From TrEMBL:
Pathway: Ketone degradation; acetoin degradation. SUPFAM superfamilies: Arginase/deacetylase. This is Acetoin utilization protein AcuC. Residues 22-317 form the Histone deacetylase domain. It comes from Mobilicoccus caccae.
């Protein structure tokens, strides 16, 4: 049986650990991998698990400065030497032994699966340890050390790809990836997030459209706090599919931060796992429609580590394997028992939150009309007014 997807995973990735009490608890990665195994998604035949080595600094230097890489290396050997000028040793990004190696391996994992997908060796790739979208060329930021998506995109550009689309549905703006390719018309970066007026990193507004020679290559949907499934999916479908269809990417890279969930402690959106799965399913379908199925899916934020992240990312893995998991599927008892034993917490009973009807959530199509009294519609219209003309699209119809 041909391998359907390459999945980046090794237990050693739990070494990406900022310490006790930090929101970016690596147990969320371990629980995701264990849930995938419990559901049979890591069985041999349809999946290939990728265990990346530590890459040379030349790979990281595609998007990060040599001074920054050296600062990470110093902090990796001696955390007490972490230099805050590079965002290291801060509350968000405390240094730890080995921080360089594990961060670099995550970046290499995303690059490796992107290479395999681009070369046609495998249809899809997933790195749920990746999606570290806040890392900047010269600084760590927002729990992110090396920008794995940026590394992969730059490698793809250097290897003949002419149109790459990056879609980020994390609750926080995908600022690092946008910054790295802001002036490059070959890279479309799209981010749907809670507005930067109330949430870190304070960026990602509709008027941020790309550099002078790349206008329209950056697209931002800045949503008001409290948006739930219906509004979130309406905003997503009103902007993402039409622009992707106009751009016609050759490969699609997506970031699936799960912190848009209603129980996440670090954001203020109100989205369910059911809706997150629908968005992932739509992106997967678009990869087949637009670029021959060339799809690389990444993790990202998500700080409700038992109730949300493992289910959200296991759904992404299932979609990549063409073994979609129904939201009505019971969570395996073995995984729930393990969670109770290790975490002292009752795990969710099913793979969804019960907000959908057989996996379906009904939202109003943009073709049904714009409601100026609705905060989501106003946010969507600002994005469409700013970005759609650069892609030759109609403001009022999809």
């Amino acid at each position: 049986m041909a391998t359907q997807a390459r999945i980046v995973w090794d237990d050693s990735f739990t070494a990406y650990d900022f310490g006790e009490g930090h929101p970016m608890n690596p147990i969320r990665l371990d629980l995701t991998a264990r849930l995938c195994r419990a559901l049979g998604l890591f069985d041999e035949g349809e999946v290939e698990l990728v265990v990346p080595d530590t890459p040379d600094d030349d790979l990281l230097a595609r998007v990060h400065s040599a001074e920054y890489i050296e600062a990470v290396r110093r902090a990796s050997a001696d955390p007490s030497s972490a230099d805050p000028r590079f965002g290291l040793g801060t509350e968000d990004d405390p240094a730890f032994l080995g921080i360089h190696d594990v961060s670099a391996r995550i970046a290499e994992g995303t690059r490796a699966v992107a290479e395999g997908v681009w070369r046609g060796e495998v249809p899809h790739g997933v790195n749920f340890a990746g999606g570290l979208h806040h890392a900047m060329p010269n600084t760590a930021a927002g729990f992110c050390i090396y920008n794995d998506a940026g590394v992969a995109i730059d490698w793809l550009l250097d290897n003949g790809v002419e149109r790459i689309a990056y879609v980020d549905i994390d609750a926080h703006h995908g600022d690092g990836v946008e910054r790295m390719f802001y002036k490059d018309p070959r890279v479309l970066t799209m981010s749907m997030h809670e507005t930067g007026t109330v949430l870190f990193p304070g960026t990602g507004f509709p008027g941020d459209l790309g550099g002078p020679d790349a206008l329209g290559s950056s697209v931002n949907i800045a949503l008001p706090p409290g948006v739930g499934d219906v509004g979130w999916l309406r905003a997503f479908h009103a902007v993402v599919p039409p622009i992707l269809r106009a751009f016609r990417p050759q490969i699609l890279i997506t970031q699936h931060g799960a912190d848009s969930h209603y129980s996440d402690p670090l954001a203020h959106l109100s989205v369910s796992v059911d809706a997150q799965r629908i968005a992932a399913d739509t992106l997967h379908d678009l990869s087949h429609e637009l670029c021959g199925g060339k799809w690389v899916a990444l993790g990202g934020g998500g700080y409700e580590i038992v109730q949300v992240v493992p289910r959200a990312w296991t759904h992404v893995v299932g979609l990549a394997l063409h073994r979609p998991i129904s939201v009505d599927t019971e969570v395996p008892a073995s995984w729930r028992d393990d969670v109770l034993t290790r975490m002292g917490e009752e795990a969710p009973p099913t793979m969804g939150d019960g907000t959908s009807e057989k996996g379906r959530i009904w939202w109003r199509s943009w073709d049904a009309g714009f409601d100026p009294e609705d905060a989501v519609d106003r946010a969507v219209m600002k994005t469409r007014e700013a970005a759609f003309p650069h892609h030759g699209l109609d403001l009022w119809f999809d």
